[in-house]
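# nightly structure sweep
# worker-07 picked up a monomer target from the shared queue
# config: single-sequence mode, recycle default, output format = structure tokens
# input follows
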Amino acid sequence: MTAPKELHEQIDRLSPEGQERLRAFLERQEKIERHLAALEAFSTGWTPEEEAAFEQALSRRVQLRHTDAETAER
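# output follows
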């Protein structure tokens, strides 16, 4: 594992473009973590039936996004 000081040195050596990509990545990661925390809080106390319904709806949404992406590429 890289020590914090080494990480700071590596970041300082990045090009401006690299620093911008790193910033964008970290912002996306923070957004994902917030969404996961919200989803966990939202789903606390669900019955097995509610969980199954949510998983089914989520899988349909993922399939639709995948289909939409394929359609957009054409």
